[in-house]
Amino acid sequence: MASVTSVGSPHTGSKTADAMKETSRRSSLPAWLANTVSGALSWLAGEPGLPQDALGALASLDSAGAAVFNRRFPQAMPFTPCGEGAAVVNGVHYFSMGGTRVSTNALDASDAVLALTSRDFGDEPNDGLVGRCSSHWGMVLRDDYEWNHLDQVNQALGLRAPLSPDPLAVYRLHANRLRKLGL
C-alpha cells in the first residue's frame, strides 16, 4: 500500500504561471528574474550552481502543462471542478490540502511578493500562487488553511498568521492518519 499527499499543488495549473508564461513571451526579464531568485535560494540551501530553468518549470505549472500531466496520470483527479477525486486508486491513497490566505504576517517579506502574484486570481481564493480548487486531488483534507504558499511548508522562518495551525502539527496529524491506515 502507498499514499500520495499534495500540499498546495497546482493540479490544474497556476494562474500565476499562466501570467508569467504570457509575460515571458514578450520579455526575457521574468525568466531571468525567476532563475536568479531560484539560484539564490539554491545557494542559500547550500547547493550552489544547480541549473535553473524557469521557463521549463512554468511549462509544468501552467494550465496547459497541468492538463497534459493529468491526461497521462489521471489517478484521483477530481470528478467535478473544485470537487474531490477517488480517495484510493489501485491501492494508492490520495490526499490533498492547501491554504487560501495570501498575507499572513506583517514581518514576513514574502507576503508582499505573494500579494502581487495573487492578483492573477481575481476573486478566487488562493495562497498567492495556487488557487483553492487547483489544489484538490483525491480526498481533500482541507483547502482553506490560513496559510500562504510558503507557510504551507513552514518557510520564511516559520512566520504565519496568528492563531493559524502550525504546518508541522498538521503534518504530524496526517502522518498518524497514514499510520492508522497501515501506510
Question: What does this molecule look like?
Answer:
The chain has 183 residues and is α/β, with parallel strands linked by helices. The protein is built from 6 helices and 4 strands, in the order E-H-H-H-H-E-E-H-E-H. The chain has helices at 15-26, 29-44, 54-61, 63-72, 110-117, 167-180; strands at 2-7, 88-89, 92-99, 139-145. Strands 1, 2, 3 and 4 form a 4-stranded mixed β-sheet that branches. Strand 3 (92-99), helix 5 (110-117) and strand 4 (139-145) form a beta-alpha-beta unit. Helix 1 crosses helix 3 and helix 3 crosses helix 4 (63-72). It is globular. It starts with a strand and ends with a helix.
Could you write a compact summary of the structure shown?
By secondary structure, this protein is of the alpha/beta class. Helix content is 37%, strand content 13%.
The Cα radius of gyration reads: 17 Å
**Basic shape:** globular
The low-confidence runs, each spanning 5 or more residues with pLDDT under 50, are none
- What is the helical fraction, as a range of percent? 25-40%
Gap from first CA to last CA? 6 Å
Largest sheet: 4 strands, mixed
Distinct helical segment count: 6
Number of strands: 4
Which structural class do you get from the secondary structure elements? alpha/beta
Order of helices and strands: EHHHHEEHEH
Beta-strand residue percentage: 5-15%
Averaged pLDDT: 92
